[in-house]
TrEMBL record:
GO terms for cellular component: membrane. It comes from the Eukaryota. This is NIPA1 protein. InterPro entries: EmrE-like (IPR037185), Mg_trans_NIPA (IPR008521). The gene is Nipa1. Its main location: membrane.
Length: 256
């Protein structure tokens, strides 16, 4: 139930605020989950994990401060215009070509031994998942209106739903494959960074959310995203290290 509520909230967030803000902030589930697990499930959260939680929250605050303050696409007509933009269509063709190469040629041979193969497949699919989610929210606003565009909005919403469903199913398949072959902590940390980067790239090409962002805000968002990513890596990758703040006070015993 809580996962379903979280996904509904995530969907509503994509329809209300810029993608460049929602996607990186999705990482806050990792520090909050780690803190709750340390109290409810009695899992150990070492000093690096606590530092990672602090960095993730601090980076998220920087992202919120410097994110775009308004949407660049707010109507179905604007969405249709963006979807047919030659630059975005060309980008999707490149992504589809890379996915075909990865799924049918590279993954069968190198997937079980190279973690970046499965991560690349899942992250490239994010180029369809997140824009489709945002597009469904925009198209759904006109479906129940009695105007000539409501029929087009319905067709567009159905197409985006089909794309979203297919991409999610394929993502689940390769995420499960990756978790069978690699450590979940390492996979989760690398996957977050690569997935978020490619989603932001796809959203920037489609929705042009960066067009009204100044140099200072751009650098602020880059620093915030980097800080969040470092925090996620500290939480996920180093969670098995038995290291506490008390270890800093131990003298360094050297023997001849």
């Amino acid at each position: 139930l809580t996962v379903a509520l979280g996904q509904i909230g995530n969907f509503l967030a994509y329809t209300a605020v810029p993608t460049v803000l929602v996607t990186p902030l999705g990482a806050l589930g990792v520090p909050f989950g780690s803190i709750l697990a340390s109290y409810l499930l009695k899992e150990k959260l070492n000093i690096l994990g606590k530092l990672g939680c602090l960095l993730s929250c601090a980076g998220s605050v920087v992202l919120i401060i410097h994110s775009p303050k308004s949407e660049s696409v707010t109507t179905q007509a604007e969405l249709e215009e963006k979807l047919t933009n030659p630059v975005f269509v060309g980008y999707l063709c490149v992504v589809l070509l890379m996915l075909l190469l990865l799924i049918f040629w590279i993954a069968p041979a190198h997937g079980p031994t190279n973690i970046m193969v499965y991560i690349s497949i899942c992250s490239l699919l994010g180029s369809f998942t997140v824009p489709s989610t945002k597009g469904i929210g925009l198209a759904a606003q006109d479906i129940f209106h009695n105007n000539p565009s409501s029929q087009r909005a319905l067709y567009l919403c159905l197409v985006l739903l089909a794309v979203l469903g297919c991409s999610i199913i394929i993502q689940f398949r390769y995420i499960n494959k990756a978790l069978e072959c690699f450590d979940s902590s390492v996979f989760g940390a690398i996957y977050y960074v690569v997935f978020t980067t490619l989603v932001l790239l796809a959203s920037a090409i489609l929705f042009r959310e960066w067009s009204n962002v100044g140099v200072v805000d751009f650098l602020g968002m880059a620093c915030g995203f980097t800080t969040v990513s470092i925090g996620i890596v500290l939480i996920q990758v180093f969670k098995e290290f038995n290291f506490t703040i008390g270890d800093l006070n131990k003298p360094n015993m050297k023997t001849d």
